[in-house]
Amino acid sequence: MNPIFAFVSCRFGVILFLGCLLSTGCSRPDTSDASEYAEFVFTNGSIYTGDSSKPWVSSIGISGGKLLYVGDEIGLRKVVASETQRYDLQGNVVLPGLHDQHVHALWGGLVYSGADRTKCVIPQGLAVDNFLELLQTCVSKATKSEWITGGQWDVLALGVNPHRELLDKISTDVPILLDDTSGHGAWVNSLALKMAGVDSETLAPSGGGVIERDASGEPTGVLWETAIDLVRNKIPLTSDNILRESLIWSLNEMLSHGITSFTEASNGFVAGSLKEAQLYSELAGEGVLKQRARLCLNWNWYSRDGTNLSVIENRKQYIGGRLNLDCVKIYLDGVPTEAHTAAMLEPYARTHKGSNEQTDSGSLVLEQSETNQAVIKFDKEDLSVKFHAAGDAAVRSGLDALEAAYKQNGSPSLRHSIGHSGFIDKTDLPRAYKLNATFEMSPYLWTPSPIANELAREVGAERAERAWPVRDAIDAKALVVAGSDWAVVPSVNPWIGIETLVTREQVGGSEKSFGKSQAISVLEAINLFTVNAAKHMNKEDRLGRIAEGMLADLIVIDRNPLDIPASEIHKIQVILTMIEGEVVYQK
Ligand SMILES: [Zn+2]
C-alpha cells in the first residue's frame, strides 16, 4: 500500500494528499455513478497528449489509475465532484511517462549506489595520472583477499595504452579488474591474470574474445568481449543484499528522472541470469518495482551462473506485477571503439592495435544461419528479440534474420528491435518498416560519453557524421526508440538523451557537433521516449500518450522543453512521477 503523500509544493502553493488517490481507502465522490467522476484532476497546465490532432490540453481527470478526462477546463467540470481533489499545475508541463528502452539497471545501481564497497567508481574521461590516483584510494581501503572492480577507462582519455604494469604499480596484492566505458573491455593487473590462469599460452575464447598481447606474446592486461569472462569468473559473487540494495536504488533513481517504463537490456551479465530474474521477480512481487519493466534475457552473452537458456525456458514463472520477461538479447557484434569488435560493412579507418591486418572490419559473433535459426524460434515463441548491433554489418545481419523469421512465421506478434543501431547502411533503412522492426538508438552515447571521440577516430569522420542515423531512420518510416545504455554512460537522465537528439552537440551546447544532419525536433525526441516506445512494446492502446482510457503514467516537469533553448533541456527537473495513478516520486 502506498503511504499517504503529504504533498506540499512551494512552487504550486497548494497542499494535496496525493497518496490518498492511490490507495483503496480513498473516499470516492458522493454520486450514484462514481465511475464518471475523477478522484483527482490536474488543471491549469500545458499537457502534451502525444496526439497530433490535439497535442496540448490544459486539464486531465484520473480515476482508477486511468485517464478519465483529457481536455479543457470547461469540459473537466463534468467529471469533478465535491470530493475530487485538484492539483493546480500553475502552467507546468505534463508529459506521458518516459520509457528507457535500453538500460542496465542492476549494473547502474552497483556502480553508483555505493552499496558495494569494493566498487571503485572512477569518472569517465580521466587522464592516466588522475585515474590511477583514484584507483590508489580505492585499493588502499581494500583487504588483501578482496577484488577491486569498477571503472571506467577509455584509451583516448587515458592518453596512454592501458597495460597491466600500470595497475601493478598500484597493487600486486589485490586483484584488479576495471571496465572500459563501453562495457565490452576490461583492464586487469598481473595478479588478476595469474588468478585466472591467463598467460601467453591462453587462447582467446570464441564469441569475439580478444586477449591483447605485447610483442613477446604476453597478455597486456587488456581483454575484450568474451575474453573478459576468463577473469570475471574468478571474482567472488556479489552478495544478495548488495544486489537488492543496488537495484532498489536504481529503480528510485529512474523514477526521479520520470522513467515509468524500462527495458533491462541484458539480464544476466552482472550476477547471472537466474539470480537477476529472481531479484526482479521478488521486487515485483513485493510491489517495490513500480515501473513497467521488461527483461531482455541474455541468450549468447555472459552469464555468471550459466543459466541463460534455463531462464529463457522457464521465464513465465518470474512474470508478475509490472514485470515481464518477454524479450531475448542476442549479441551480434561488439563496439566500434579501439577494440574493433563492431562488425562494419567497410573496414575501419585505423589499423587495429596488435593486428597484423592493414585494415579490418570487425566480425559478427554468430554465423548468419545461427542467428536466423534463433530468431525464427524466439519469434515463434512470442519473444521480442533485441539485438546488440553496433556496426552496419551487424544491423544488416539482424534485419536478415528478422526477414527470415518474417518469411517463415509471418508478421511478428511482438516487435523486435535492433539495439544501438550505431551505423545503418542507407539500403537497410527501409527494411525496418517492412519487417515491423524497431531501431533502438543510444543518444546518450554520443555525448558526454568519451565513446563518441573514440568511435570517430576508428571509423573516420565521414561515417561518424552518419552515426546513429535517427533522422534518416524516421524519414524511412522506421519506428525509432531510445535507450540510455546506463551504466555504459554515467547518467540515466533521459533529458540528456532528448537534448542531444535535438542538438547533436555536447550537453549544454558546443561548437563541435556529432552527426548534425541526423538531428530531430524536440517533439520527435519526446515521441521516441513515449508513444514510439509504447508502440514498440505493443502497448500503444494503454501507454505512451495522454488520452482518455489510457493508463495514468505521466510526469510533471518544471519547464517546457519547447520554450527553452535546446541546449538547456538537460536541466529539466521532474517534479512528480505517476504510474497508474500512483505518485511514485515527487521532488
Ligand atoms: Zn547495453
Describe the structure.
By secondary structure, this protein is of the alpha/beta class. 29% of the residues lie in helices and 22% in strands. The chain has 20 helices and 26 strands. An 8-stranded parallel sheet has the order 10-17-18-19-20-21-22-23. The radius of gyration is 24 Å and the shape is globular. The two termini are 20 Å apart.
Rg (C-alpha, Å) = 24 Å
Listed once per kind, the bound small molecules are:
zinc ion
Let me know the average pLDDT: 90
Helix content: 25-40%
For the largest sheet, list the strands in their spatial order: 10-17-18-19-20-21-22-23
Question: Which features characterize this protein?
Answer:
eight-stranded parallel sheet; 26 strands; 587 residues; alpha/beta; disordered N terminus
